[in-house]
From TrEMBL, chain A:
It comes from Acrocarpospora corrugata. Keywords: Cell membrane, Membrane, Transmembrane, Transmembrane helix, Transport. One of its GO terms (cellular component) is ATP-binding cassette (ABC) transporter complex. This is Glycine/betaine ABC transporter permease. PROSITE patterns: ABC_TM1 (PS50928). PANTHER family: GLYCINE BETAINE/PROLINE BETAINE TRANSPORT SYSTEM PERMEASE PROTEIN PROW, GLYCINE BETAINE_PROLINE BETAINE TRANSPORT SYSTEM PERMEASE PROTEIN PROW. It is found in: Cell membrane; Membrane. InterPro entries: MetI-like (IPR000515), MetI-like_sf (IPR035906). It is a multi-pass membrane protein. It holds the Pfam family BPD_transp_1. Belongs to the binding-protein-dependent transport system permease family. SUPFAM superfamilies: MetI-like. Residues 143-322, 463-643 form the ABC transmembrane type-1 domain. It comes from the Bacteria.
Automatic annotation (TrEMBL), chain B:
Residues 28-264 form the ABC transporter domain. GO terms for cellular component: membrane. One of its GO terms (biological process) is response to osmotic stress. The keyword Hydrolase does not apply. InterPro entries: AAA+_ATPase, ABC_osmolyte_uptake_ATP-bind, ABC_transporter-like_ATP-bd, ABC_transporter-like_CS, Gly-betaine_transp_ATP-bd, P-loop_NTPase. Belongs to the ABC transporter superfamily. GO terms for molecular function: ATP binding; ATP hydrolysis activity. This is Glycine/betaine ABC transporter ATP-binding protein.
């Protein structure tokens, strides 16, 4: 899209681009299959073997090297023990008892009390319903494992993120330092740091917690910093003029005024943590993610759906509860003071009292400790999902096959063949020239260095295959984003209906998207592409819609009064004016799609995604998996830089044009 | 007592930009300075003294440096050069702790956009200054209630700022400043954000408070009528520099330059000028047994007496004849 709007403005550029593509197609026709640097699934390069050996060396010295003895091992110990402790409280046999300290009744009561105290009665009821449904689905222990991991990671993330966020909010210097670090943490495809983490912290809860923290800390820091910085300077000045110290201003002005926004940050942190905690199943994190993963690997749609449903329910409960908490911050101060303080104490005391009684029951009696096995709806859900999947595959196969074939033969295969089937030097030259053309010199240098790195990692062809599906998925995301975004941007009704769906889509852990899509299309690379599209579409749609909404009504009115048709309005006024948002949507779409590459590897996408996944499970492929993870990061950096440079240029050209 | 000023400002400069000290003392215009050095001289070489109990008004168009000036007085903005003597001691030399003590006990400020704490009720807002200096709960609430009564907000203790109108919010701001019982009150365009009716009401409120509590005040405004109404003396600023300082009738009667003349051209002069400004020496043959008036009487209030007298009105202070006024002078003054 960026290149489109760009080339439309500069004809010379368009012809050059066309010439490059034509040369590529011609070269491909003449030289296909030569110099493709193919590497079979189990083949290794010396680099990969070297990485394997290095890994083995680390394993051998884990208990003698001072870095490990005095740092990594301690961190691992603390994190492992933290997770185990929470597990002992709510999910696993503990302290010599066959059951956790708090049985299901106690957990439900405590969760309800907490959501009631910080939220309201409605979310408390929702919480009870949600938690009971975990038991009914037959996934009580798994759900509590996921909750334990999520809550531990959230606690650590907030303990690190909020102070750092406050610091970044107070100090412009520190803020300038952390921002690029956070940018990097957030653009890095989510799954690639799992493997290196296990190198340092072994497989298990510690690595899972750290992976989750890497993913969940950035929003905590960013939003806290933003909240602190946004506090009205007038109010701060008034406080200073009365002689408040910096600490007093922070405690009595900044923090109270920032509280509501910080709670929004807590919400984002929790949702990010839940998402990552399920994905950390790849490195053996306990919980629902593992159930989904196992089911995906054995293509057991029913079981995957059942566990996916539990994840969705947990996401909804956590999201609603924290949202209600942030509203409460707002409403609480409205209520009168003295009277409500008394009622409040009664309320809190009552809720905690009931929770304590039920908790005691669940500590003492088996019926309140173990969720009654008789009330199992899980098997029904599993069977129903299986049946539905079968039915859909049977009766919709005409449609799904058509879709699959159009995209596979129309887009995916040609792209893949062009990228992975041409000689590497041809693709290299084409890639660098396109980057130069759309993004300028620096983009070209980034592209050259990145592509060279892919060759060095020994994964050129796999990278090209992954790049092909990434590009196809991004094109689909953008098409969907523009079509839906324009619709939402123009119609309030569409906005009201679709926005909650998009919001919900964004809070769902990436994992659960796979399940229904797998049910529809079976395990192929096409499934992986659709999962990535579904994952990335909400953010692209929202960005485009925002851009369309940002077009001044006066401009639209003027164009309409000049007699433009609706299509002309969209094509000639709204989209060109929303150019910057569309370019941003392309960039973000790419990043999101790329972060699904590894997940795609679970359901039939080959190439880099498969290499990473195989690295998790097969000892001799660890080095290669590491290299594949790096290759994904390299692809991400190159695509991000080039689209960003193109975006800057698009906007600049647009400005010149409008002058 | 009258002679020892509460606040004595000497040669104050505030320059924003890189290497601000270099610009101090420059005689370039603000524009030229900006072009040559990239610095903005927001306040340039301003000196004035505020007497005890006085309402001292600083007036100027927007951008003339008033807000910067008043913030320099409590070092919310750090001045670049000059002295600020408060009760004889230089505020600029105060260390951080001493400065904080000054702000907590002796100076208080009222802001254009109120700067209230939205998460605290009115009572807690007013008590805030006392709270941060460590007063106990009972003591600060007692004081806050007193001040709220003084500004006419009794009954609104438990309201929150966004439940109040703009005028009432500014009363809270005023109460917060009064609560710490400061020696000097600073106002930065406190009523500019209010609509005209409320503004007039608040001006009267300030006049009443000044009469009741007798605080020394430095009052910033861009509104000439407000300046004339409240000020015992007025300092007029332009592009950061002082152009004129004097009593309201001096400013209106003898503008220092075209800038000030332009400013005051719309003012009904008879409402501001006193008899002093129109009286003349008695002619030898004039009868000197007409009515007697004070030289500081505003002309508007003397019109009736002068026009209805059949002989010249004598302007007398302490039994001494300063001059005479007849209908001719009054009519000429009004006609101009
Ligand atoms: N922090 C600052 N940095 C740079 N320039 C400033 C800053 N604050 C004020 N100025 C400049 O100083 C001049 C005086 O501003 P100000 O004191 O706010 O004027 P006033 O209150 O009379 O409207 C203006 O030209 C303004 O742009
Ligand atoms: Mg101002």
């Amino acid at each position: 899209m960026t290149t489109l709007s760009l080339t439309a403005r500069v004809p010379a550029r368009r012809y050059l681009l066309g010439a490059i593509l034509a040369a590529w197609v011609l070269g491909h026709a003449l030289l296909a299959g030569r110099d493709t640097l193919a590497l079979g699934g189990a083949e290794l390069t010396p680099l990969h073997e070297g990485a394997n050996q290095a890994w083995d060396t680390v394993d051998d010295n884990r208990n003698s090297n001072p870095f490990f003895l005095y740092f990594f091992n301690y961190v691992r110990l603390i994190l492992d023990e933290s997770v185990r402790f929470v597990q002992a409280l709510i999910s696993q046999p503990s302290f010599g008892r066959p059951v956790p300290v708090l049985g299901w009744l106690g957990v439900v009561a405590l969760a309800a009390a907490v959501t009631y105290i910080f939220g309201n009665i409605r979310v408390a009821l929702l919480t009870v319903a949600g938690f009971v449904s975990f038991g009914l689905l037959g996934l009580w222990a798994e759900s509590m494992d996921t909750l334990a991991l999520t809550l531990t990671a959230v606690a650590y993330s907030l303990a690190v993120g909020i102070p750092l966020g406050i610091w970044a909010g107070l100090s412009g210097r520190f803020n300038r330092f952390v921002t690029p670090v956070l940018d990097f943490m957030q653009t890095m495809p989510t799954f690639v740091y799992l493997a290196p983490l296990t190198l340092f912290f072994l497989i298990g809860p510690a690595s899972a917690t750290i992976a989750t923290m890497i993913y969940a800390i950035p929003p905590a820091i960013r939003i806290t910093a933003h909240a602190i910085r946004e506090v009205s300077p007038v109010t701060l000045e008034a406080s200073a003029s009365l002689g408040a110290t910096a600490a007093q201003s922070l405690r009595q002005v900044r923090l109270p005024l920032a509280r509501r926004t910080i709670v929004v940050g807590v919400n984002q942190t929790i949702m990010a943590a839940l998402s990552m905690a399920t994905i950390a199943a790849l490195i053996d994190a306990p919980g629902l993610g593992k159930t989904v993963l196992k089911a995906l690997q054995t293509l057991d749609i029913g079981a995957a759906f059942n566990a996916g449903l539990a994840i969705v329910i947990m996401a909804v409960v956590l999201d609603r509860a924290t949202t209600a908490a942030s509203r409460r911050v707002e409403t609480r101060r409205r209520t009168g003071r003295e009277i409500s303080a008394f009622f409040r104490r009664v309320e809190v005391g009552g809720a905690l009292g009931i929770a304590a009684v039920l908790g005691y029951l669940s500590y003492t009696y088996v019926w309140a400790a173990e969720f009654p096995a008789g009330a199992d709806l899980g098997s029904y859900v599993r069977r129903a999902a299986d049946a539905a999947s079968l039915w859909v595959q049977d009766s919709l196969s005409g449609f799904t096959d058509a879709l699959k074939n159009v995209i596979t033969y129309g887009l995916l295969n040609p792209f893949e063949s062009l990228l992975a089937g041409s000689p590497w030097w041809l693709v290299f030259a084409v890639g660098v020239s396109i980057a130069a053309l759309v993004g300028g010199l620096r983009a070209a240098i980034t592209a050259a260095v990145g592509l060279a790195a892919l060759i060095g990692l020994g994964l050129w062809q796999d990278s090209m295959v992954t790049l092909a599906s990434t590009l196809v998925a991004t094109i689909l995301v953008l098409a969907l984003g523009v079509a839906t975004g324009v619709w939402i941007g123009r119609s309030d009704r569409a906005d009201a209906v679709l926005r909650p769906v998009l919001d919900a889509g964004q809070t769902m852990p990436a994992f659960v998207y796979l399940v229904p899509i797998l049910g529809l299309f079976g395990p192929t690379r096409f499934t992986a592409i659709i999962a990535a599209v579904v994952f990335a579409a909400p953010v692209a749609i929202k960005l485009v819609a925002e851009g369309i909404r940002g077009v001044p009504p006066a401009t639209v009115e003027a164009a309409r009064s000049a007699g433009s048709s609706s299509w002309q309005l969209i094509g000639k006024v709204r989209l060109p004016m929303a150019r910057a948002s569309v370019a941003l949507a392309a960039n973000q779409g790419l990043i999101y799609v790329l972060s699904m590459v590894v997940v795609g590897g679970l359901v039939g996408a080959g190439a880099l995604g498969y290499d990473v996944v195989a690295g998790f499970s097969q000892h001799q492929l660890r080095g290669k998996g590491l290299a594949a993870g790096l290759a994904i990061v390299v692809l991400g950096i190159v695509l991000d830089r080039v689209t960003r440079a193109a975006q800057v240029r698009t906007v600049r050209l647009g400005v010149i044009k409008e002058d | 007592m009258k002679d020892q000023p509460v606040l004595d400002v000497r040669g104050l400069w505030k320059v924003f930009g890189p290497k601000p000290e270099r610009a101090v003392g420059s005689t370039l215009s603000r524009q030229e300075l900006k072009e040559r050095t990239g610095c903005v001289a927001a306040v340039r070489d301003v000196s004035f003294a505020v007497r005890p109990g006085e309402v001292f008004v600083v007036m100027g168009l927007s951008g003339s440096g008033k807000s910067t000036l008043v913030r320099c007085l409590t070092r919310l903005i750090e001045p670049t050069a000059g002295e600020i003597l408060f009760d004889g001691a230089d505020i600029r030399k105060a260390d951080e702790r001493h400065l904080r003590e000054l702000r907590r006990h002796r100076l208080a400020m009222v802001f254009q956009h109120f700067g209230l704490l939205p998460h605290r009720c009115v009572l807690d807002n007013v008590a805030y200054g006392l709270e941060i200096r460590g007063s106990g709960r009972a003591e600060r609430y007692k004081r806050a209630r007193e001040v709220l009564e003084l500004v006419g907000l009794t009954g609104f203790e438990n309201s929150y700022p966004d439940q109040l109108s703009g005028g009432m919010q500014q009363r809270v701001g005023l109460a917060r400043a009064l609560a710490v019982d400061p020696d000097l009150l600073l106002f930065d365009e406190p009523f500019s954000a209010l609509d005209p009716l409320i503004r007039r009401e608040m001006q009267n409120e300030v006049i009443r408070l000044h009469r009741e509590v007798g605080k020394t005040m430095v009052f910033i405004t861009h509104d000439l009528s407000e300046a004339l109404k409240l000020g015992d003396r007025i300092l007029i600023m332009r592009d950061g520099a002082l152009v004129q300082m004097g009593t309201p009738d001096e400013v209106v009667g003898a503008p220092a330059d075209d800038y000030v003349r332009d400013f005051v051209s719309d003012v009904p002069r008879s409402h501001v000028l006193t008899l002093r400004w129109v009286m003349r020496d008695a002619l030898p043959e004039e009868p000197l047994d007409g009515p007697e008036l004070d030289p500081d009487l505003v002309i508007r209030d003397a019109v009736r007496v002068v026009l209805s007298a059949d002989r010249p009105v004598r302007v007398v202070r302490d039994g001494e004849l300063l001059g005479v006024v007849t209908s001719a002078e009054i009519l000429e003054m009004i006609a101009r």
